[in-house]
Amino acid sequence: MKAVRFHEFGGPGVLRVEEVPDPVGETLVDVTAIGLNYGETVIRRGKGRELFPWYPGPSLPAVLGSEVVGTTAEGRRVMGVPRDGAYATKAVIEHPIDVPDDVSDHEALALLLQGTTAVAAARAARIRPGDRVLVEAAAGGVGTLLVQLAERAGATVLAASSKGGLGYDWDDLEPVDVVFESIGGEVGRRAFELLKDGVGRMVVFGYASGEPLDVTASDIFRKGVAVLGLPRDTTPEEVLKLGLRPSLGEVYRLDEIAAAHEALEARTTRGKLIARP
Ligand SMILES: NC(=O)c1ccc[n+]([C@@H]2O[C@H](COP(=O)([O-])OP(=O)(O)OC[C@H]3O[C@@H](n4cnc5c(N)ncnc54)[C@H](OP(=O)(O)O)[C@@H]3O)[C@@H](O)[C@H]2O)c1
């Protein structure tokens, strides 16, 4: 099969299409679509272990990626997390999930990891009708779903993005009940200070700036707010039933994944990016 591998950490140029042996395992699929995620650019740069210390990091050469849709030998159309990386024409999925006929490959991939992330984050935030909810990176895959989930819960949504709408200049913003925090650094710090004292909730699930959110127990005590991680209680099957409308971004070929990484790192993307083998 073909796989996009990298032999050393570095820029997008380290990603190369190569011929490698097919993986062996129970649910082998012919991959029809591959989900691309921002976190994979971090691992490719060799920053994975530093930024996600619980993640052992890949042994090189490695195949990146955590989500595919594919067809089994019996003709089942399934999605899931591949055992040996996703950027390939074949994959072994250890816990395959059937994709409903009315859900496209692209939609399925937008709802798999980004979908479970958004739904878990929204649950953790316990949004109440009338809450003011700040969503960072709101044009992204997780962000667009969070906007929908917060609106459904009756919130007033403040969608922050570098691609229009509310940017990251929040000088005149009234305090908010909830922040969905995925940028960290200075942005995360300012978002934390925007939380309403005594009632605010911040859900932290990323640090796209490269700097994890830096708030102390004393900051949390001073403001009387909750800072929450992502609960691990949400399944893709549940997410599929919610009828969310993901934003579908660019579709790349296998040999164009390096360009997709460039776009992710340049912050020019919107919605879910996928590649087609
Ligand atoms: N995909 C997943 O399954 C998953 C799971 C758990 C956690 N996360 C985290 O959730 C966040 C959103 O994930 P996503 O998959 O939906 O990605 P994404 O939104 O498609 O891409 C990341 C976005 O972060 C924003 N950003 C702000 N500062 C940035 C910086 N210095 N460098 C790069 N990007 C910056 C950019 O949006 P603007 O230009 O609009 O600000 C960028 O488009 C990420 O932090 C990710 O690591 C994702």
Précis, in short:
The protein is of the alpha/beta class. The protein has helices spanning 38-44, 48-51, 105-125, 141-152, 185-194, 217-223, 236-240, 257-265; strands at 2-6, 16-19, 28-36, 62-63, 68-72, 77-80, 90-92, 97-98, 132-135, 156-159, 178-181, 201-204, 226-228, 248-253, 272-276. The mean pLDDT is 97.
Q: What does the model show?
A:
The strands form three sheets. Strands 3, 5, 6, 7, 8, 14 and 15 form a seven-stranded mixed sheet that branches. Strand 11, helix 5 (185-194) and strand 12 (201-204) form a beta-alpha-beta unit. With 277 residues, the protein is of the alpha/beta class. The protein is built from eight helices and 15 strands. It has helices at residues 38-44, 48-51, 105-125, 141-152, 185-194, 217-223, 236-240, 257-265, and strands spanning 2-6, 16-19, 28-36, 62-63, 68-72, 77-80, 90-92, 97-98, 132-135, 156-159, 178-181, 201-204, 226-228, 248-253, 272-276. The mean pLDDT is 97. Helices cover 27% and strands 23% of the residues. Helix 3 crosses helix 4 (141-152). The protein has two domains: 2-99 and 247-276, Quinone Oxidoreductase, Chain A, domain 1 (Alpha-Beta Complex); 116-228, NAD(P)-binding Rossmann-like Domain (Rossmann fold). Bound molecules: NADP nicotinamide-adenine-dinucleotide phosphate (NAP).
Low-confidence stretches: none
* Whole-angstrom Rg: 19 Å
Proper CATH architecture of the largest domain: Alpha-Beta Complex
What is the number of domains? 2
Structural class: alpha/beta
Shape: globular
Instruction: Give the CATH H-level superfamily of the largest domain.
Output: Medium-chain alcohol dehydrogenases, catalytic domain
N-to-C CA distance: 10 Å
Bound molecules: NADP nicotinamide-adenine-dinucleotide phosphate
Bin the strand percentage: 15-25%
CATH topology of the largest domain: Quinone Oxidoreductase, Chain A, domain 1
The number of distinct β-strands equals 15
Which oligomerization state do the chains in this entry correspond to? single chain
The share of residues in helices is: 25-40%
User: How many DSSP H or I helices?
Assistant: 8
